[in-house]
Predict the 3D structure of the following.
Amino acid sequence: MRRILLTGAVALTVSAPLLAQQPAVPQRPATITARTAGLDRHDGFIPFYLNDRTGAIWLEIPRDSTRALMLATLATGLGSNPIGLDRGSGAGEQVARFERSADKMLVVFENTRYRSSGGADHLRTVLEAFPPSTIAALPVIAEEGGRILVDATDFVMRDWNDVAGTLQRSNQGAYAVVRDRSHVYRPYTKAFPDNTEIDVALTWAAAGRPGGIVSSIAPDGSAITLRQHITLLRLPDDGYKPRMADPRVGYFGISFKDYAQPIQGSLEQDWIARHRLERVNPNDPASPIKNPIVYYVDRGIPEPIRTAVLQGVSWWTDAFDMAGLKGAFKVELLPEGADPMDVRYNVVQWENRNERGWSVGGALSDPRTGEMLKGMARLDSHRARTDYNIYAALMGADASAADTAFVLARVRQVASHEVGHTLGLGHNYIASTYGRASVMDYPAPRVVLKNGQIDLSEAYGVGPGAYDVWAIHWGYGIFPAGQEADSLKAIMADGLRKGYLYLSDADARPENAADPRTNLWDDAATPGDFLKHQVEVRRLAMSRFGLRNVRDGDPLALLQDRFPLLYFFHRFAINSVTKTIGGMEYANPLKGDGQQATRPISAVRQREALASLIAELSPAELAIPDTVLALFPPRFDAGSNVELFGEHTTPVFDELGAARTLAQMIIDGILQRERAARRKDAR
């Protein structure tokens, strides 16, 4: 008996490790039907389920739809221009690939920056040289019939727009998403045949003391809730044909390296960004447009501004029609109840912020081809008030139809400008030198003197410019098979023959910019002419500035908001004249197109420019009339109001500080170091 027990004990001792080494039998995942019992299935491109009890969102990934475009945007904003977390701002676009790995579904962002247009073997060498990004592992919770159910809650609640990082860089404190105060926002979480839209309300909490800007805007700066919108979009088909960029016409686009290019060519390839446009019969130039580009204007824009926005956006209808693409562009009001973030709508939104800021135009595009999928223009709601202040400073504040007409004319222009960006067009800051040739320039209001009076009858242009029509023809033209290259060449030659030039931000904005023709907010063929006009208007308007520039019952302190618009009325003209010193006119020529690459500014013109700038430093030009100074009561908000002069005499108005600011602006431009090194008389 004892021997038998001993044998049994030995047997148990030996078999235990053997049992421990046996692999566990994996549990088969539950079926999707069983796991989602009682939940509503939202059918679409990628179907999803919402679990009201846990707050989870589950995605059903079909095995035959394992790639998608992922777009992440902010559906609501912080309302601060300095910080920049606006509704409609985005984190960019990615080609996302879903890959099964054991009990997880990996989400991999493909690397579209490095490519090969060669064969499969060469493509493999490129794919193996540069990494993709595996950015998430979604737990698999059920399977059925070739479909895989994954828990995407953590995935969609991630801070895709880097709100926390933006707040940190803006010195607003350390914030992080808190999940127990975040949730899926049901009204705008929907699925459609080609896109799945997921909207989540995320709350960021501060780890310590919140920053002053956030605290001044949010009810409690220690926690802010913003909605983040994620789009999963079916990859566009292969019907879109990319168009190579040309430096002589201004389009945004995508850049990548193609390692299959011949050694005589460039690895760097640039394709323009644009919407897809097709004719019913692509070989018939008279065939109707099959897929018009439709833009939708935010219903929340107040009247009469909303009507002006509709009118300004419709200038692109005219541009496409004039470019031989009749019926290619339309504008409508956003349908009631539609989500502005839904990828199916190109939108023009109204951007309310705590202070004035930029209007913005952009788009969500396919990073593989540059095809625009959703245009998104954001119009700053303060713009109209700034324009009114310009009018009131120039003409007086008495109620009149003219002030509204002035403001609405500018609204039309800025609406058209920002939508131009969403069509792919960049700034063209040289277009004002050959007429009002482009809405993609920044237009100074045309203010002239007629019979000793200020005249604003032609303050802003109407309709697209000649450059705009030409650029649309070049970028969106549809040509019969085999004729595209010759057609584009002919369009380009026609534009160059007519003098259409393109120079943009890098040519205009830097302190050391060299071409005096390329400026923001100018309105003349030459810098000298523009400065002369602006100075004449400035002198007259300042001599008349007084009680007429506010309305009855307004505080006189409001005059200090409007007077700087006059005092610095010529600042952009000064900037353009400054570029003449050490300046050079240039273009972006290609070999054989007949353009002259560079043309240095003559010493005579440089000396004339220097003399005109020195003239603006005279006491008569820097002084503020005593009649104006007598109307400025103390202001206690000078440090927080961006429209006011910086002052060393707070709360009393600092007239010498104003003169110092203007003089410093002129002298800094003249003595800018690269400009000084380029001076003609220094050679």
Notes: Residues 401-422 form the longest helix (22 residues). Residues 1-21 have pLDDT under 50 and may be disordered. The radius of gyration is 31 Å. The chain is about 30% helix and 20% strand.
